[in-house]
Design a protein that fits this description.
The complex is a heterodimer. By secondary structure, chain A is of the alpha/beta class. Chain A contains three helices and nine strands; from the N terminus they run ββαββββββαβα. The chains are: A alpha/beta, B mainly alpha.
C-alpha cells in the first residue's frame, strides 16, 4: 500500500458524504446502497464512521458525470478512466467523481460500482495506488465477486496505518 | 543501417504518451527545443510505469505494456502527489 505525499488524512472520525448527481444506470436506492457498502468496508476496520447527507457541503462530495465536470480532469468517454478522487483535505478534498459515460452495474457486467467506489474512497481517505495486484488500490479495474467482499489485507493495513483499527489489537 | 521495426502503431504510441503524461509525468512536450528531453522523459516514465505494473522494465513500448495501458483504470496518478 501507499499513502499520498505528506500522508493527508481526516482529523475526525465522522465523515459526511453527499451524492449530488446520480447515474441513470441504477436506481438512486441502488447507488445509495452501493456507496454505503463501499464506505462500510472502511468503517469495518477503522474507527471512521460515514454519514450520508442530502444538502449542503459534505466532506466527500460525490457525482456521476461524463466529460468535463467542473474540475481540471475531464473524463475520456467509455473505457479508459472510470473515476477519480481527491486526497483528504478542506474544500474539494475527498471529492469523488464517477465517469457517467461508463455503464455502472452491481454485477460482473460492465463496471461494478461497489468495487470502483471502494477504490476511490481509498483515495478519499488517504490511500495511494498499490503495486499489489490483489489490492483494491491497484490502479486497473478487475472484477472480483462482491458477495461478502472485505477489504483486502494490503488495503486494510494501509488505512489502519492512517486511522488505527476499530478494535484495538 | 538496419532498423528495428516498431512493434506498436502510431495510435498506440499516442496512447502511451497520453497515458504517461496523465499518470507518470509530463510527456507530450512538442517544442522542438525540448523534444530530446521529452523523449528521455518518455523512456524514464515508461520505465517507471513498467516497474509499477511488474512488467519487464525496458523503457521501450511493446504490446504487453500497451495492453496494460488500455485497461480501464482509476484516473489518479500512480506517482504520489
Amino acid at each position: 500500500y501507499g499513502h499520498f505525499h505528506g500522508k493527508p488524512r481526516w482529523r475526525k472520525t465522522l465523515i459526511t458524504y453527499r451524492i449530488t448527481n446520480y447515474t441513470p444506470d441504477l436506481t438512486q436506492s441502488q447507488v445509495d446502497t452501493a456507496i454505503g457498502q463501499a464506505f462500510q468496508l472502511y468503517s469495518d476496520v477503522t474507527p471512521l464512521n460515514f454519514k450520508q447527507v442530502s444538502s449542503g457541503t459534505a466532506d466527500i462530495m460525490i457525482l456521476f458525470k461524463g466529460g468535463s465536470h467542473g474540475d481540471f480532469y475531464p473524463f475520456d468517454g467509455r473505457g479508459g478512466v472510470l473515476a477519480h478522487a481527491n486526497s483528504p483535505g478542506q474544500g474539494q478534498g475527498g471529492d469523488t467523481h464517477f465517469d457517467d459515460d461508463e455503464t455502472w452495474t452491481l454485477t460482473q457486467r460492465s463496471v461494478n460500482l461497489l468495487l470502483v467506489a471502494a477504490h476511490e474512497f481509498g483515495h478519499a481517505l488517504g490511500l495511494d495506488h498499490s503495486r499489489d495486484r490483489r489490492a483494491l488500490m491497484y490502479p486497473t479495474y478487475q472484477y472480483v465477486n462482491t458477495n461478502g467482499y472485505k477489504l483486502p489485507d494490503d488495503d486494510r493495513r494501509g488505512v489502519q496505518a492512517l486511522y488505527g483499527s476499530r478494535t484495538p489489537v | 543501417a538496419p532498423t528495428i521495426a516498431p512493434t506498436v502503431s502510431p495510435e498506440e504510441q499516442d496512447l502511451a504518451e497520453a497515458y504517461l503524461s496523465n499518470f507518470y509525468g509530463d510527456v507530450g512536450v512538442t517544442n522542438s527545443s525540448v523534444r530530446r528531453l521529452a523523449k528521455s522523459s518518455f523512456n524514464l516514465d515508461l520505465q517507471a510505469m513498467q516497474a509499477f505494473f511488474g512488467l519487464e522494465v525496458t523503457g521501450v513500448l511493446n504490446n504487453e505494456t500497451v495492453e496494460v495501458m488500455k485497461a480501464p483504470r482509476c484516473g489518479v496518478s500512480d506517482i504520489s502527489r
